[in-house]
Design goal:
3-stranded antiparallel beta sheet; 18 strands; 2-isopropylmalate_synth_dimer (chains A, B); alpha/beta; amino-acid biosynthesis (chains A, B); homodimer; 22% strand; acyltransferase (chains A, B)
Chain lengths: 531, 531
C-alpha cells in the first residue's frame, strides 16, 4: 500500500517571531532557514515582507534550496484592487516560491476588526489569490480563526474556504488562531470541510492554548488534511504553535502513522532532530526545554531504581521509541533513588569501562550517596560526576591547588557621589612549583572569582582560555538540620560542548568555588592535560 | 441535565518526584498538599511510604483536610502473602484514606521485569486489593503500561482490569506509562475497556512523550473514563505527566465540557489556578513556563499591534477564555489601558484605597514597568510592591540610609592547617543624626550582611529585632542583553506573618542587599514607626 504525502509547513520565522522575548536577526533567519531546508521541511514561511525592513531584506533572495520559500501577508484591503494594494505588492515583489495569504473567515472579525462586509472579504480573497497565481506563485490561504468562525457561522466560513480553492489556492489552511479548539471539535469540523474541498488541499494550523496543538494537528490529518503548519520547538505567541519537532517524531516513528504517511523527512534527517531543536535554542539564546518530547535532555531519562534495572534488561519495556533514531540519548539519572544499575549505566555513558562486580563501583556509589546526603545532586551535573569518578579511580592529576581566595563586594560612594557596588577577587593558586596570585573585578562576586581563578593557571592557561560560563543556578537545600546552598554552573568551551558542575556549601561563594574548580579540572581532563 | 462528576487525582508528590532536578523536602510536600487540597483536588497521592524515609515520615499523619490522602506502592510480590509483604505492610501502616497499587498489566513485563507468571500477577492484584479493603482503605489500581499491554495482549490486560475491579477497587486507572499512545488509540482502547468495567470506575494516567497527555486524558473522558490523574505544571519524569492545571482550565471553561462535567473545583478555586501554578514553581525554585496554557505569563500576551487594537475592541476576538477567571492577566505589550486594570486590582488587594482615574495610579504603573524592564517581578514579592507604592505615594519616611557596606568571603588556612571559608560584613548606616558602623560574621556573605544590617539600627533596633530570614531564592534572569540576578527573600517576625521582598542586580550581594533593606522598611512601616 503506497503512503500518502503529508507536507510540513514551518512558520518559526513568521508566527514564531511573535514569541515573547524572541527577536530574529537577519543572520538568525538565514541560519534557521538552512536548518529547516536540511531537515526536509516542505515550506519555509520566512516572514512578512513589507511589514518590516528586516523581513523585506530577508526576501531579497530565495533562502532555501529545496523547501518552498514562502512569503506571508494579508489579503488585499477593501476599497483597492489587488494590483493597487501595497501589502500585496510587497508580497509579489518578494523572491518567494509561494505566497501565504491570511484571510478572515469569521464574519464577526470581518465586521468588527476589518470593518468591512462579508462579500468584500470574499472578493478580497479571490482577487489576492488570482493576482499571486498570475505572477506564477504557488498560493496558500490561512483561514484565520477558522474554527471559531465555523462554530459561529459555518456557511460563511466554508464560503471563504471555497472561494480560496476556486481561485486556485493550492492549500487552504484551517487556523485555530485563538488556540481554544479541542481535538474532537477539530475532527468534526475538518471532516465537514473535507466534504467541500478535498483533504489533499487542506492544512491545519494549531496553537497550544489548551495544550492540544499536536493532538489537533493529528486529528486534522486523521480527518483528511494533508498539510501541517507549526514551528520548531513550539515557538509562537502566547502558548506557542504546534511543535513540528514533536509532530515529526510522532509521524515518523509511531505505528500507524509511519506506515500510512510519508513526511518527506529522511531517516538521516530524523537523526538530526535533537540537534536541530538544540540549535534553534542556541541561536535564540533560549533555555532548552529539557522535557520536550523526543529531543529534550530528559525525554529518555529514568530516575527510579526499579525502572532502571528493567530498562537495562530491555529498553522496550520503558521506552516508546529508541532515543538514537532522533539523535537523543538514554539517561539513567544518578540519584539516591537509584542503585548499582543506575551508577553502572551512568559510568558507561561517561566512558568508564567498569563491569558489574568491579569493587570500585560500590566505592563510587558510596561516595555519591555520601555527597548526596550533604546536598549534592549529580543528575544534571554530569561533569562533577565525571570528576568524582576519576578521583575515586585515582585518575586526576594534582593539576592545581587553590591555597587561598578572597572575594569582596563593596558598596560605596564614588568620586561623583553615586552609590556603586564593586566586586573584586584575589586568588592564590599553586601550579606545580609556581605560586600565582591573580586579582580580578567582576559584575558580582562569583563573576569576579571566576575571572580571577581562570586568569593565570600557569602552564595550563591555554587549555582553559576558552571556558565560558553560560548558566548559573542556585538552590537553597534543606539537607539535615541546616540549609545549604547548591550551585549549578553550566560551561561551554570552543568545541560547542556544554557541561554542568555542582557545588554545595552553606556559603554561596564557597559552593560557587567548588563548581568553578570542578569545571576547570573537567576541562583539563577532557583536554588530556598532564602534570 | 445534571452533570457527571470527574474526579481529579494528583500525583505531583509521587510521580512528580521523578522529575529531573526535583527534590521534595518534607516542608515542600506539606505546602503542595495544602495547595492541592484548597484547589479542590479529590485525591492527593503523597508518595511511596516504605520506599524512602521522607515519604514514610510524610505519611505519619494525614496531610489533607478534604482530599483523599493516598499512598502509592506495588502489589504484593510473588511468593509472599499480602500480609507478609513488607511493601504492602508499609502502605497499610500509612495514615492514608486510600491506597493506589501499581500493578503490571502487560504480560511481557510480568515475565521479564517481575520474572513471574501471568496468573501469579493476577493473584497479586487480587490479594493486595483485598488486604487494603479489609483495612478500610479505598483502593485504586494503576494498570501500568496498560495501552502497550493491551496492544500486545488485550485479553491479559483486560483480565488485570477485571481482577482489580472484582476484588473491590474503586478505581482502575489505565496508565500510558511510556507516553507513546496516541489520542485515537486511547479512544479505541478505553471504549473497549468500558465494555468490561463501567467508565465511572475507570481512570486515565497519561504521559507527555508524544505531546498528547492532555489530549489523551480528554479522549479517555470522552470514551467514558471519569478519573484523570496528572500533576501540577505537568511535572513528572521524562516529558512529564498530564498537566492538571491545563486540564482544569479546559474542563471548567470550554463549551461542551463545562456543561457536561463537574470537577469539584469551584469558580473561586479556579481563580487561584495561576497562583497555584506559580507557587509550585516557587517552592521548587523552578523557572515557570511562561508559555503554559491558561496560567503562563505569556498565555494572554499579545505582541502584534494589529491584534492589540482588536483585543481592546473586543477581547473575544483574540482570546479563547478570559484571563481573570483563572487568576491570570492580559498582557498588552503596547497599551497601558490593560495595565491600569491590573495595577488597580493589585493595589486594592494590598489595601490601598485608590480609585480608577487617580493620577498616582499611572505613576505607580510607570514605576512598576520601569522596574520590570530591569528584571523585577512583583508577583510573589508583595512586600516590595507595597514598599514601592508607599514610596510613590510619598509615605515612606527616611528611616535609615546605608552609606556603605563591604562583604568579604575568604578561604584560607587556619591555625591548624585546615582550609576554612569565613564571611564578614561591615555596614555603615545613618539613622537620623547617628552614623552607626556594625560588623558581623555569617555562614555566607548574605547571612553576614543580613546580620550586620540588623545589628544596630539605632532608635529602630527594637522594631526589627524579631525579623527572621526564612527563605532565600535566587534566579538568573535574562533581561535584555545581560543576565541579572533576581533574589527573593522571605521573612517572618514575631507575629507569624510572612512576606517576600525582591532585589535585582548583576551582583548577587547587591540584589540581596535590596531585598534585605526593603524588608526592613516594610517591617518599620508595618510597625508604624515614625521619624
Amino acid at each position: 500500500m503506497s503512503r500518502e504525502r503529508i507536507t510540513l509547513f514551518d512558520t518559526t520565522l513568521r508566527d514564531g517571531a511573535q514569541t515573547t522575548g524572541v527577536d530574529f536577526s537577519l543572520e538568525d533567519k538565514k541560519a534557521i532557514a538552512t536548518l529547516l531546508d536540511r531537515l526536509g521541511i516542505d515550506y519555509v514561511e520566512g516572514g512578512y515582507p513589507g511589514a518590516n525592513p528586516l523581513d523585506t531584506a530577508f526576501f531579497a533572495e530565495k533562502r532555501t534550496k529545496n523547501a518552498k520559500f514562502t512569503a506571508f501577508g494579508m489579503t488585499k484591503r477593501a476599497g483597492r484592487s489587488a494590483s493597487n494594494d501595497p501589502g500585496v505588492a510587497a508580497l509579489l515583489e518578494a523572491e518567494a516560491d509561494a505566497i501565504c495569504f491570511v484571510a478572515k473567515s469569521w464574519d464577526y472579525h470581518v465586521r468588527v476588526a476589518l470593518e468591512t462586509t462579508p462579500e468584500e472579504n470574499l472578493a478580497g480573497i479571490h482577487e489576492s489569490v488570482e493576482a499571486a497565481r498570475a505572477k506564477g506563485r504557488e498560493v496558500l490561504v490561512d483561514c484565520e480563526h477558522f474554527f471559531d468562525g465555523y462554530k459561529a457561522n459555518p456557511d460563511y466560513a466554508l464560503s471563504c474556504v471555497k472561494t480560496a480553492y476556486e481561485a486556485g489556492a493550492r492549500w487552504i489552511v484551517l487556523c485555530d488562531t485563538n488556540g481554544g479548539t479541542l481535538p474532537h471539535e477539530v475532527t468534526e469540523i475538518v471532516t465537514a470541510v473535507s466534504k467541500v474541498v478535498p483533504g489533499r488541499h487542506l492544512g491545519i494550523h494549531a496553537h497550544d492554548d489548551c495544550g492540544c496543538a499536536v493532538a489537533n494537528s493529528l486529528a486534522a490529518v486523521e480527518a483528511g488534511a494533508r498539510q501541517i503548519q507549526g514551528t520548531l520547538n513550539g515557538l509562537g505567541e502566547r502558548c506557542g504553535n504546534a511543535n513540528l519537532i514533536t509532530l515529526i517524531g510522532a509521524l515518523k516513528l509511531k505505528d500507524g502513522y509511519a506506515a500510512r504517511f510519508d513526511l518527506g523527512v529522511t531517516d538521516d534527517a530524523l537523526g538530526q532532530l535533537t540537534h536541530v531543536s538544540r540549535q534553534v535554542d542556541e541561536i535564540l539564546n533560549r533555555q532548552p526545554n529539557r522535557h520536550a518530547p523526543f529531543v529534550g535532555a530528559s525525554a529518555f531519562a529514568t530516575k527510579a531504581g526499579i525502572h532502571a534495572s528493567a530498562v537495562l534488561k530491555d529498553p522496550r519495556t520503558y521506552e516508546h521509541v529508541e532515543p538514537e533514531v532522533v539523535g537523543n540519548a538514554r539517561r539513567l539519572l544518578v540519584s539516591d533513588q537509584g542503585g548499582q544499575s543506575n551508577i553502572l549505566a551512568e559510568l558507561k555513558r561517561c566512558g568508564f569501562a567498569l563491569e558489574r562486580g568491579d569493587a570500585r563501583i560500590a566505592r563510587v556509589l558510596d561516595e555519591v550517596k555520601r555527597k548526596e546526603a550533604q546536598g549534592f545532586a549529580f543528575e544534571g551535573a554530569d561533569a562533577s560526576f565525571y570528576v568524582l569518578v576519576k578521583r575515586m579511580l585515582g585518575e586526576v592529576p594534582a593539576f592545581f591547588d587553590v591555597e587561598r581566595f578572597s572575594v569582596n563586594v563593596e558598596r560605596r560612594f564614588n568620586a561623583v557621589g553615586e552609590l556603586v557596588t564593586a566586586s573584586e577577587a584575589i586568588v592564590k593558586v599553586r601550579v606545580g612549583d609556581e605560586v600565582l596570585i591573580s586579582a580580578a573585578e567582576g559584575n558580582g562576586p562569583v563573576n569576579a572569582l571566576d575571572v580571577a581563578l581562570r586568569k593565570d593557571l600557569g602552564k595550563y592557561q591555554n587549555l582553559i582560555q576558552d571556558l565560558e560560563l553560560v548558566d548559573y543556578k542556585v538552590r537553597i537545600y534543606q539537607g539535615g538540620s541546616d540549609a545549604v546552598t547548591r550551585v549549578l554552573i553550566e560551561f561551554t568551551d570552543g568545541s560547542g560542548e556544554r557541561w554542568t558542575t555542582i557545588g554545595v556549601s552553606p556559603n554561596i561563594i564557597d559552593a560557587s568555588f567548588q563548581a568553578l574548580t570542578d569545571s576547570m579540572v573537567y576541562k583539563l581532563l577532557k583536554a588530556g592535560a598532564s602534570l
